[in-house]
Amino acid sequence: MIADVSNITIITNIPYPSITISCEVHPLCENLTNMQSKLATFITVGFISTIGLLSGCGGSTSEPSIGTDINYSFAQNTDGWDAGFSDYTTLTKPTDVEQVHAVVPIPGASKALYMGGTNLSDDLLLYTTRKVTGLLPNATYTGSFMVTFASDAPAGCAGVGGSPGESVWLIGAVSTIKPENKQTRENTLLNISRGNQSTAGDSSDVIGTIGVSGIPCSGNNRQAAIKTLGPSKWIPFTTDDTGSAWILVGLDSGFESYSRIWLQSVKFTYQPWVL
Hints:
The chain is mostly beta strands. It folds into 2 domains: 1-62, no CATH class; 68-272, Jelly Rolls, CATH 2.60.120. It has 2 helices and 17 strands.
């Protein structure tokens, strides 16, 4: 069978490396969209930022299928990472926040970055952030997180203000600027669009919750278990003039009591963003 291609226009008179493929609603449109995605994979990083792939097929924005992984382990140290906490007022600032290199309370486990604190504001954010270098200057990328940690928060249990497991969210964020606290009257907030609790922001994604099935709801000597969350959704970001960006992993609590995790490793995957 010969398909009718009279409604399809392929524009080739634009100087390389700009490529534009446009089409009206047509059975071959899906094939052209697939060709776009495959073509983008083989274009070098230096050219991707100058290429626009536009389609009239009504599809969503393409997302990358490959990427470069950066793996961070906290087994030996926390070098290069800066810890902090945010989302509180002058009256609800916690006094028991701990962010230290500590042994994971699991037999045979190594050390990790321990993050814990009491949520007095119904909205406490504990976070750690570091700089990623070696990317192209002023270029648009997309990044994704996979995080492994130990938690002794039980899943499926009731708690003050929310569940100790399902009302404490793990987030990943990436931004051009360093994530830092900013003061707005009596409120201390983060300076990037990282969302809030179960809602992602422009610079972040909610990767999951810290609750672990099988841990009893009551008792002070609960056994921690290892949990891996991710991959997160792809988060667009732009590098600065030096080809750098900042990544953040945080614990966003709606549980109005003490929450904690032992952060063992973070895998950050990045790739040039293709529209």
